[in-house]
Amino acid sequence: MNDGHLINHLFDExxxxxxxxxxxxxxxxxxxxxxxxRTPYQRDRSRIIHSSAFRRLKGKTQVxxxxxxxxxxxxxxHTLEVTSIARDLARLLRLNExxxxxLALSHDLGHxxxxxxxxxxxxxxxxxxxxxxxxxxxxxxxxxxxxxxxLDHTGLNLSHEILEGLKKHKKTLPYMEAELVDVADEIAxxxxxxxxxxxxxxxxxxxxxxxxxxxxxxxxxKNKDNVPRPQLVRAVIGLCLRELxxxxxxxxxxxxxxxxxDFQSQKERVVVFxxxxxxxxxxxxxxxxxxxxxxxxxxxxxxKGQQILADLFAYFxxxxxxxxxxxxxxxxxxxxxxADYLAGMTNRYAxxxxxxxxxx
Length: 360
Ligand code: MG
Prior knowledge:
By secondary structure, this protein is mostly helical. 58% of the residues lie in helices and 0% in strands. The chain has helices at residues 5-12, 40-49, 52-56, 75-92, 97-106, 115-126, 135-146, 160-165, 176-199, 205-208, 212-217, 229-254, 260-264, 275-293, 296-318, 334-343, 347-356. The radius of gyration is 21 Å and the shape is globular.
């Protein structure tokens, strides 16, 4: 057996039939030598964690700016929480845990500074050029082109399946691990934002206790009227994990999904909540939109960020010689180069460049 293949088969033995097998990887874009000691996704995990794009996540807004306090989530801590949830679920469902971990770790690598507002602004700035900006697609661009720790090629040269799994916002996804990471993302941010929102006095625990999902999560908690914030997060994540696991198992059973190709022929997602629980989940989401995400206190710094991005976009379109030599290939349009450069910035760095350009 070839080097690297033995270890793939060793780990694949423990996986469910519908999991993506290490031995089935289609490989990487650039030539590489298999590692006899690690599966392809164990290697990919290291490549992602060691990339500068990953480290920059700590300076990017999740909901509130990283510089506004030491305890609110930033995009890096959010990513680590998504990964933790995704791994637990992957192991429970006997999916490929290393693969799920890579998808979770890389899911927000393309996220611009200033949160969702930053993403919206870049998209609007590209519109007149007939182009769009979307953070999932940008995550693919980051790992394919912008991180460059190797001399002989651009990008992290990740396994083909990770690039495929990063394609999101579709009705169905090619791997169950990708579906799982999508839900893990939602569970992670909604539960964490309960804690951050309570700490920031955006809403009160008594308001949350009126929501069906919170009532269910704290059903057996004697101290629910006084529950510590981390306990609330634990209870919500625990409930969501149980609900998701139970409903995914039911879907697998009812739809007779045994193999990966059974999974891939599905017209509806498999790793999803039941309709009933999804209703409670959406109600919680609506609550957070109203009382947290869409409040002036959260939106103000993001609006300033939108102005920074718009000014910088105009500045670099007029002064392309000021762009760092990112070694784009010549086919990349100027507007895309500018968007790529801005998307990679942390909040702090964007503001610094903005001030240096005489815009602040
Ligand atoms: Mg996310």
